[in-house]
Amino acid sequence: MLDLTSTEVAGRIEDLYAAPLADLETHAQGQPPGMLSALLGMHDDLALAERSIAFHRDRLAQLVHTERHIGGHEVSHVLDCARRLAEAVAVRDVQAKAVSAVLQSLGRAPAPQPSPDPVPGVPAAPALPAPAASAARSR
């Protein structure tokens, strides 16, 4: 199963509902909770996780810049930022997996194929008679 980005999820939602995401968000606000609002919420959570990854990645790059001195105080900031980055990646991966599974389950199923008709002119084989039960006792 492929993990989708928030941009890909937005495109899949738009394809599924045949409308732009902004219109779908407006429409969902006036409706009771349902699949559309759930998908939009999952999309928002995925987008937030992606923004968090970008922020913490950039912050970590600043903290470990080659011209920057790293002392005891800075190490705690580096560790905290790395931990937050790891958490954001984990959240993104879970959200992407969940929304991918939901979107995949909402795909259109192919129409059922009709069962093949028996070939005309060929009689069906008669059923074999069941074997008779033996009246003799086993020893």
Order of helices and strands: HHHH
Give the structural class: mainly alpha
Strand content: under 5%
Mean pLDDT value: 82
Radius of gyration of CA atoms, rounded to a whole number: 30 Å
**Tell me, what's the shape?**
elongated
What oligomeric arrangement do these chains adopt? single chain
Distance between the termini: 61 Å
Q: Point out poorly predicted stretches.
A: none
The overall strand count is: 0
Q: How many helical stretches?
A: 4
Helix content: 55-70%
Let me know the largest β-sheet.
Answer: none
Note down, in words, how this protein is organized.
The protein is mainly alpha-helical and 139 residues long. It has four helices and no strands. The N and C termini lie far apart (61 Å). The relative contact order is 0.13. The mean pLDDT is 82.
Describe what is shown at a glance.
The chain has 139 residues and is mainly α. 60% of the residues lie in helices and 0% in strands. The chain is built from four helices and no strands.
Notable features of this structure?
139 residues; 0% strand
Q: Topology, please?
A:
Blueprint: H1 6-17, H2 21-29, H3 35-63, H4 72-105
